[in-house]
């Protein structure tokens, strides 16, 4: 049985032509002030941090989202949070599995969320990650809506990585329903971010930018500063992608582009690549290498830029990230074309 059939949430007539999904949530001013239980707000905010490109701190439940002291967690969950913060998703998944079968809520939902994020962000190839997530769905989705939320959001993005848009749309619909039960206010942040991620995978950068701006505005109204800042940074990145069609990229010489700003951007990109390489996330490393490739191009080093694009493509391929492989191939061809015309 397909995911959407399981819960009766295939999207209906509201889908706009040429987009993955309709606007996924009401505007934040239409939602009552946050009244959801702290653990529910923490669950929604944690996924929103991952969807915005920020890595949650293992103590975030007690610092940013939950007022007062954090709820105590089991030792395996504490270890899983720490590993995931470090970007070591395989180790995080192993620790989360040990906590999964306790049968207690909200620990079970949090263990599911850590596992789902590990399958989304970690080294497991996307096709295998989808199989594992669907297995978890079959075993756990009939319970608390927090379990459905934990699985459906990462499922939507993984389906997008495999260009399975109908299933991605169904998973977004499940996420929409789960956030309506758990935390409608938080949904005004999370749902645009997840939809933007899927739209970006489909190559619809302008819609992705609009959705991320909506999420940043909603996060600002809710006081979720880390999510707001991460969403705003993602908007800047997406605007750069939208304004730089791969087929029209030109390689300038170092004399035209070597500035203090370019040198600072390259140093920042170097740090980002080192940090991503220290994790076990192929997608994080691929995205960091694409960013550094652009900094190298602007610094007048097209050959080094092409090398980083090649390495990014290999990272995407290791994950089974179909849009990423296509994007890296197009970027490499655009960087190589000036050399071919000169030869």
How are the SSEs ordered, and which strands pair?
Blueprint: H1 3-7, H2 38-52, H3 60-65, H4 75-85, H5 89-100, H6 107-121, H7 126-140, H8 145-161, H9 165-182, H10 184-201, H11 205-222, H12 225-242, H13 254-257, H14 260-277, H15 282-298, H16 302-319, H17 322-342
Helix pairs in contact: 2-8, 2-10, 2-12, 4-5, 4-6, 5-6, 6-7, 6-8, 7-8, 8-9, 8-10, 9-10, 10-11, 11-12, 14-15, 15-16, 16-17
Question: What's this entry about, in short?
Answer:
This protein has 343 residues and is mainly α.
Q: Could you explain how this protein is built, in words?
A:
With 343 residues, this protein is mainly α. The chain has helices spanning 3-7, 38-52, 60-65, 75-85, 89-100, 107-121, 126-140, 145-161, 165-182, 184-201, 205-222, 225-242, 254-257, 260-277, 282-298, 302-319, 322-342. The chain is globular, with a radius of gyration of 20 Å.
Strand tally is 0
Q: Tell me the distance between the termini.
A: 56 Å
**Structural class based on helices, strands and sheet pairing:** mainly alpha
Order of helices and strands: HHHHHHHHHHHHHHHHH
CATH fold type of the largest domain: Serine Threonine Protein Phosphatase 5, Tetratricopeptide repeat
Number of domains: 2
Major β-sheet profile: none
Q: Report the radius of gyration as a whole number of Å.
A: 20 Å
What is the name of the CATH architecture of the largest domain?
Answer: Alpha Horseshoe
The amount of beta strand, in percent, is under 5%
Q: What portion of residues is helical? A: over 70%
Number of helices: 17
Give the averaged pLDDT, no decimals: 80
Uncertain parts: 1-34, 60-73, 245-257
The top-level CATH class of the largest domain is Mainly Alpha
**Form type:** globular
Region (Disordered): 1-39, 241-261
Biased composition (Acidic residues): 248-261
